[in-house]
Amino acid sequence: MSQIPQIEIHTVKRVNLNGGTLIDGFPSGGLTNSIASMCFMRSIKNELISILDSSLFPPLSMIYNGTANFPVRIYANEDIKAAFLISELNLNESLYYTVSKTIFQWARENECELVISSGSIVTEESKESPNEHDLQKVYGVASTERAKDRMEKAGILELHSGSVSGIPALLLNEGMRRNFDVIVLLGNILKGSSEFRPAAAISEAIMKIVPGLSCDIHFLLKRAETIEQDLRKIRDGQNNSTINLYR
Question: 59: how many CB neighbours lie within 10 A of its CB?
Answer without folding.
Answer: 6
